[in-house]
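Contributing new records

If you add data, match the layout below exactly. Sequence lines come first and carry their own label; structure lines follow with theirs. Keep one chain per record. Anything else will be rejected by the validation script.
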Amino acid sequence: MENIDPTASHTDESIVVVPSQTLSSDEFNLLRSVSIKVVCHLGIVGQCNIQFSLNPLCIEYYIIKVNACLIRSSALALKATGYSLGYITAKLALGMNLVDLKNLKSVEVMTISKSFDEAFQKCLRMVDQNFTGFDSYARTITDNEISALTDVNVFILATAFHQGYTIERFYQLTQIDRWFLYQFQAIIQFLVHRFNSSIIQDRALLKQNVWVFSDKQISKYCGITELEVCESRKQFGMRPSVKMIDTVFGQWSDPIPQIKHFD
């Protein structure tokens, strides 16, 4: 997995993408070989994950931490249920009664999609029902505000691209990999230059973008109703579906099939 934010020190503090999108084959093999050496040296048996900090300009890396387990089961359960396991467990350890504890809403979300931009926008909509996707603020963003970011504020990203910030300028200010910046910029450019009311009459264009942009988002930028977008999708045979996915990258037969939902 890969953090989008180059300054993040923990996967819970940044947007994380699986599999990594920006590593070269040499970088991937380097980190893989180092991981194997670390595991063998420490004598770890079973599951393990290692978090690296990698310099993209040269072959320089640091091992931030080694976990002798995957430690993602609790995080995935939290995402799926919204149940704050760490908070609840700590309170129970202090002697509090489970019945008396109120659950906290999770702020982590996870999506599985065919492309980065689709998964990215689905995540944003899952964070808050008032978010339609990668939307910009109705104010001006400055260089100082961008360079002072300690995590990825996606709406500042959207606003800056909407204002006309270039990939190179953004890279200089944030050091976010250009691959991700190009994905963000492409979403904003399409919203600005391609969205209009005629999209619901263009089957090819609607099919190309219906999974990336929600009905609500399309209606907002095209000046039409959400119902009109929905009816157009149905007319062209574009309906939400549930599909099975391979969770082991084709390495062997997966006895426990997983599903994903296209919204």
